[in-house]
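Record type: monomer structure entry
Structure origin: computed from sequence
Chain ID: A
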Amino acid sequence: MLPHAGTGTRIWKEVLELGADLGKLSAVKGSTVHARAAILWDVESFWAQDLEWRPSSDLDHRERIEAYYSVLWNQGISVDFAHPEADFSGYDLVLAPALYLVGDAAAANLRGYVDGGGHLLVSYFSGIVDSNDTVPHGASPGALRDILGLEIHEFLPLRAGETVTLSGGGTGTAWSEEIHPGTATVLETYISGPATTLPALTRNEFGSGTAWYVSTKLDGDDLTAVVLDAARAAGLEPASGKAEGLEVVIRSTGTDAFTFLINHADADAEYPATGIELITADAVTGTAQIPAGTVRVIHTHHGNA
C-alpha cells in the first residue's frame, strides 16, 4: 500500500483514490446479486476426468467451463457456480459444460430440477461415470439418459485440426458422438465428419422442464447461439445496449438497485441507465457514460419493499 518511495508515488495516490471511491459506495452494503443462471462445478468430477486414460487430450473441463461462462459474461447475464447436489430452485437455467461424474444424489437433483420446470443445458462427455468413477450399466450418458432423452452408442473424437459442420451452419471441433434420440427432438445434425446425418444438438421435454444436449465443441458465435437459445427459453435476456468489454452486474436490496458498470475495454462505453452515479455523484438520465478502464455505479431507488 505504501511503497518505499513514500507518499509522493503513483501507487500511494491510487490507493487513496480507491479508498475514497469505496467510501462513496456505502449504500451498496447489504445488497446482493441474484443470479438466475448457474454453471455446475464439481472438483471430484474434474479430478476424475483429468485421468490420463481419456479418449482425447482435447477434453478439457476447465476450457469448457470458461467457454460457457464467457458467453454469459459477454451477454451481461449474471451466473453462479453451483455443486450438482445444490439447491437449484432459485435458478431458471443450469449449465453443465463438463460434468463427467454424476452420482446418484446429483442425478436425482438434476432430474427433479428439470421435471419441476427447470432448464438444463449439458455439453459432451457428461454423465460418463458415477460417484465411484464406475461406468454405469447401459449407454452413455448414464444417469442423464432419461433427462436428455437420448443414448450415445459411440464416442467419435476428432483429430487435431479436424472440424465437423452442423446443419445449422456451425462448426464443431475436438469431439462428436453417435447419438440415438429417444424422446429428444433433434435440433441440428452433422453434415460432415464421422457422425454425418446423426444428431448434433438436441432438446428434450422432461416433465415440466427442458434439457438441451450439445455433442461437439462449439465456440464463438456458434456456442453463443446455443446458450442464448436455452437462456431465452428460460426467460433470460442479454443485457440490452451492452458494449463489448463492458461488465454489467446488478446488486439489489428490497428497495434499491445498484448497477455496476466496469469497462474493461480501451474505448469509452455507454449503457442505458437512470439514477445517481455514486462515484461522481452525477445524475444519470437515460445513458451512463463509462470511460475506458473505469467503474460506474448507478443507484436507483424503488421505494418501499
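Annotation 1: Residues 10-23 form the longest helix (14 residues).
Annotation 2: The CA atoms of residues 18 and 178 lie 55 Å apart.
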